[in-house]
Amino acid sequence: MRTVSVSRTGGSDVLELIETEIPEPGEGEVVVEVMAAGVNFIDVYHRTGLYPRELPFTPGQEGAGVVHSVGEGVRDLEPGARVAWAPFTGSYAEYAVIPAGRLVPFGENISFELAAACMLQGMTAHYLAHDTIHLRHGDRALVHAGAGGVGLLLVQMLERLGVTVFATTSSEEKAELVREAGADQVILYTETDFADEIGKLSENKGVEVVYDSVGRTTFSDSLACLATRGMLVSFGQSSGPVPAFELTNLSRGSFYLTRPSLGHYVETTEQLRHRAGEVLGMVAGGALDVRIDSRYPLDQAARAHDRIESRASSGKIVLVVGDQGAGIRD
Ligand code: NDP
To answer: Which atom of ligand 1 is nearest to the CA of 293?
Structure first.
């Protein structure tokens, strides 16, 4: 089988396609034939070493495919079942070994590509909208990078909760996508001071929550956007790590600050399958639109990384694995 391997950290050129044996499942494990793998920013952090991993490793935290073989003790999955997963490493490959309890079975009503595309960013948007803070109808939220993969899904989920959504993005073209997703107002934060804009849009009240995945360039002004007792959810760092922070800054408005991770919101198999089931159900039923930004075959994983790092993408970048991927060339 073919697999992408990282044996040293660095630029996208360290993503190497190698040939290896199809793995055997150990006790409680499943070998899945991968049909589609999602590309996420965390894959870049693993590749560069920002989030250290033991080398060599196969990147990719999410995917979808068909059960190929099951190990001893696996009772609820059989060869041929359609399954998706996230977050679990090793998806940039034709076959992946995954513990049975980290797999989510799904039906024929959703394609492998869409299932792979909505797992990590969809479950992230889901926990941010529903569980990190309990928002009420009429509350106000600011979503940074609203045209990003998580951003477009989060805007849709907040809008369904009846929250007034302000979002930032870097271009008018992306702003149009965020409006289509349901944002009430979109701010071009590369041209305008977003904290000033939030002041104007909220009649100086601020917002109940800021969802900040951008990090370095937005973090301190995000605090300035909060209403009294508002919450800053710092969940990513697309522009670079968040700078050192004085705890007393929170006392300006008795603010809350959290730095959540998807893994803590899908710790058990039950939590994972419940959250993924909600997201897959929304996608299959047409209640959640997953925008596919671009598709690449497995041997072009480096180009997929270049695209996510370029800031040019809006929505999901997918690696189409196996024979279907061979047809994608440009
Ligand atoms: P996307 O690539 O889809 O979105 C990132 C967006 O960030 C870009 O499109 C861009 O939007 C904006 N951005 C701002 N500054 C930069 C910059 N210097 N370089 C690149 N992009 C920039 O990524 P995701 O939506 O998948 O993820 C966003 C962040 O959230 C990542 O840091 C990721 O690791 C994190 N994340 C965290 C999770 C968690 O549970 N904590 C789970 C999932 C993701 P624009 O051009 O509009 O500014």
So the answer is: 3
| Residue bearing the CA closest to ligand 1, atom 20 | 311
Determine the pLDDT at residue 329.
56
pLDDT value at residue 3: 98
Residue nearest to atom 13 of ligand 1 (CA): 238
Nearest to 61 by CA among 142, 119, 129: 119
Regarding the beta carbon of 150 and ligand 1, being less than 6 Å apart is answered yes
The amino acid present at 186, given as its one-letter code, is V
Average pLDDT of the residues in 47-75? 97
The answer on pLDDT for 308 being more than 70 is yes
d(CA 298, CA 75): 31
Report pLDDT for 322: 74
pLDDT score, position 225: 98
Cα–Cα distance list, 75 to 23, 30, 32, 103, 150 (Å)? 20, 11, 15, 13, 33
How many angstroms is it from 240 CA to the middle of ligand 1?
Answer: 10
Taking the C-alpha atoms of residue 126 and residue 132, their distance in angstroms, rounded to an integer, is 9
Q: What is the per-residue pLDDT across 187-201, written as a single tens digit (0 to 9) for each?
A: 999 999 999 999 999
C-alpha span between 320 and 249 (Å, rounded): 45
Q: Is the CB of 235 under 6 A from ligand 1?
A: yes
The answer to whether the CB of 182 is under 6 A from ligand 1 is no
> What is the distance in A from the centroid of ligand 1 to the CA of 120?
13
Nearest CA to ligand 1 atom 26: 149
Averaged confidence pLDDT in the chain: 96
* Burial environment of residue 325 by CB neighbours within 10 A (0 to 12, 13 to 18, 19 or more): buried
